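Page 37, continued from 36.
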């Protein structure tokens, strides 16, 4: 059965304003009142960003997809208690950050097992490229190749950073979240966030030397 052409649909809220024109905070409040279409719109807006952020934190496609689902499940569970005391993105990425922190803790508790991929190449799950999910359909083939190669190099380099530096750097440089908002998300002073981003940039330079004209 063919899917409907969503581009022609205008889901309208009770006050007559299309959901696509409502703020994130308004959508979350509407979701808390039982409006499922409002939640669908929130997912449409933020699922790519959340997935890309989590992937760069855990560098595993399947785990990232599972954790991203956990983030939106948490939105559903907490919808009735949501209050717009901060930007919705602060609320959303605070949830995502907490879920990532729990995953990091789980990874540290797991025994490290021998893997044949160490000898025969990378696992298929590590081939995920967040740029494929960016929605940029206008890039030509050469640019897409260059960006894809750079993205892979950056993602690999990120693994060499301490977790707290990696997270601050990704939230600032990839998710374009302000220092002040990141400070709220990570529950640290703004100065600490800025310091972590600067240290992350310094730490990444040796691994990205060949791409310095792009990054």
């Amino acid at each position: 059965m063919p899917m409907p052409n969503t581009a022609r649909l205008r889901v309208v809220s009770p006050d007559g304003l299309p959901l696509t024109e409502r703020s994130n905070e308004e959508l979350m409040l509407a979701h808390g009142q039982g409006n499922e279409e409002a939640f669908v719109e929130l997912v449409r807006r933020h699922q790519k960003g959340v997935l890309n952020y989590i992937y760069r934190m855990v560098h595993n496609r399947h785990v990232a997809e599972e954790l991203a689902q956990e983030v939106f499940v948490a939105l559903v569970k907490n919808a009735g208690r949501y209050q717009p005391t901060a930007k919705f993105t602060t609320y959303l990425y605070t949830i995502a950050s907490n879920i990532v922190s729990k995953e990091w803790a789980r990874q540290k508790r797991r025994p490290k097992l021998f893997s044949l991929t160490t000898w025969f190449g990378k696992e298929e799950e590590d081939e995920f490229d967040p740029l494929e999910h960016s929605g940029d359909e206008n890039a030509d083939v050469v640019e897409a190749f260059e960006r894809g190669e750079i993205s892979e190099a950056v993602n690999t380099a990120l693994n060499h950073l301490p977790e707290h530096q990696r997270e601050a750097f990704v939230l600032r440089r990839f998710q374009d979240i302000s220092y002040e908002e990141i400070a709220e998300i990570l529950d640290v002073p703004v100065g600490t966030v800025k310091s972590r981003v600067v240290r992350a940039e310094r730490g990444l330079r040796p691994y990205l030397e060949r791409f310095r004209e792009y990054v």
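The two ends are 44 Å apart (CA to CA). Flag for discussion at group meeting. Confidence is low (pLDDT under 50) at residues 1-13, 114-127, 131-139.
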